[in-house]
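Person: I have long wanted to understand how a fold can be written as tokens. Underneath my words sits a plain record pairing an amino acid chain with its backbone structure tokens. Those tokens are not coordinates but codes from a learned vocabulary of shapes. I should like you to check that the lines agree and flag anything odd. The protein I mean follows directly.
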Amino acid sequence: MQDEESLQIWEGSEGDSFPMMEMNARETEASEQWDYVLVAGPCTQRDPRQARRQQQFLEELEGKGFQYKVIEDQEKVFFGIRADSRVFALYRTLLTEPEGPVPRVEPARPVPILATTRIRIVNFVLNSKMANGDTLEDLVREGVFETRFALHKGPEALVKTWAQWRSMVHKQPIDAIRDYFGEKVALYFAWLGWYTYMLVPAAAVGLIVFLSGFALFEASQISKEICEAHHILLCPRGDNSRRYQRLSDTCTFAKLTHLFDNEGTVLFAIFMALWATVFLEIWKRQRARVVLHWDLYGWDEDQEEMALELINCPNYQLRPHQHSYLRSTVILILSLFMVCLMIGMAHVLVVYRVLAAALLNSALPFLEKQVTTAVVVTGALVHYVTIVVMTKINKCVALKLCDFEKPRTFSERERKFTIKFFTLQFFTHFSSLIYIAFILGSLPFLLGSTVTLGIWCSWQGNGSWRSGCMMDLFLQMAIIMGLKQTLSNCMEYLGPWLAHKCRLMRVKRGCRSRDPELRDWEHNYCLNPVNTFSLFDEFMEMMIQYGFTTVFVAAFPLAPLLALFSNLVEIRLDAIKMVRLRQRLVPRKAKDIGTWLQVLETIGVLAVIANGMVIAFTSEFIPRVVYKYHYGPCRQGAHPAVDCLTGYVNHSLSVFYTKDFQDPVRIEGSENVTECRYRDYRSAQDYHLSGQFWVLLAVRLAFLILFEHIALCIKLIAAWFVPDVPQAVKNKVLEEKYQRLREKLCSRPKSTDV
């Protein structure tokens, strides 16, 4: 925890730290005069052509109603930019609702313009094309200007109540965030706070389900039979194992698997489907209240963008919507190619496991049990590194595809980019999990002269008797999610913090100005730069986390608990970065979280499908239920003295005769073994699939269909039961419309009879 005296954003000219709370009043007053600052290299290092382009840019801004001021220190030249009041008067006029009365503003008492509105308009004009076709971004790219930023203007209240660690359990000041950073940032933190709050019941239920496995750790009938099966030998698998193993040696793995593969898994998966729906529906209600409070319920984003275009260029011509089947086809093909690449990388991960297991078993045969653990863990680490690399590639590909589609406005470009980038990121993060959950367990491995479809999971190489790859899936999710919540959060904070310190050290080597206005600009210059993706990246990180929390939660019930702890840290990390380590984000207006809401709804549907498939095909739930009521001792009725799963282990293991091995001599101890067992449902005579296999498959498919229909029906009922907009908000909007109509009717002149 940090006290107020340690909340430092800048360093002083003498090397002492200046707490943000004790900024000189004169310095704050001076910085209030300017909205934006451009930075260029010193005059001695600029060529005449760059100086002329700088002057042309500033003169054109002046013609549009802007003022500027030039201040130079020994290393940089700073250009302060301020918009004239006539620009904002035009903006207010353009955004007046047609049916509403035009506000009459007395010249002596002008209506103040919000700081967020000022910065938004200034930023839009600066980034628009000038007479010669250049934009500020072009000038920065060509070295005419080094950088540009909006000034931080004394966010002391946010630092004191929000952007510090000791405020972790306090309510966020959403209105203050909106007044300083704009509605889009405020809605992000409002959504993140609500998501964190709603994780509390999900984390509690998930923890109860996980702990219930501990209660049955020693009492499970299946675990007892495995631990006592000293006489059952498991067949060696043809990839790396050359010896038989007793089934009782897998006792520990059987007990560990039961921690998250028990009867509570199904109920928890249904609960999470309901939770995801309730979370979204209540968030929609919460958003409606906030937006009404901000007077943005009837705000139109397209009208906002057209108003900004007309402010910058009175002769602006409306750009119509366009659609090209050729471009859409090309984008679809390229997107499918990238998705196939992600799936192929999941195959590469499996190949890595096979090669690593074979090499380590050959080199270190005395550590066979530890080799399996090492292969699974390192495989997850390799996947995490792949995610980090592919994230950068996916962003570039999504940007290129989005530009190729030629969106009409910046908002439309952002929506299209969001869909493309999230699709690529989803397959990057979840392709290996999908592969492990639904494909890896059905790969063929060689037993004898016949290729038999068996269970080919990493833990199966240790002789595990069970079906599916639940242990692999559990470990993969735990490692990847753990790394993303720890390493990613550490880098998310340490990266900007170290970069900020390096920039401060470079500035300290020069002579710091005693002019408070210039010193304020230098302080802002030392902060880390921001870009269009600064807030976008935060949203994307949370969407991926939401996917981990819901999509495969049946295999990892602790995911909501990890997400809860991570979000408590994430809120303060983002707050500290935005207020104390980064330059000021350009405020943007918004009345919802945009396309991210559709992303959340899509993840909710995928979660129902994925969890149903995990329970049906990856876990041991269906085989246990079928045995209990169709093959076991309770098929005619329950017996108090007999556990209904008695004999299940022997029932689930098929017989393989050692005489059918291709090279039995090479297998250790084969001279005294006539048969071994393996996990599958096959005939002992010809090794073909038995009738039990087809019964199980039919029940699995029936369960999947039933589970998904029940879960989706629950989602639809919950969505209907919880209205998106509270009745109070609807009544308030209805009342405002009624008042506007009455004022309009009363203002019309009454007709007179002729």
Notes: The mean pLDDT is 78. The longest strand covers residues 66-72. Residues 180-623 form one domain.
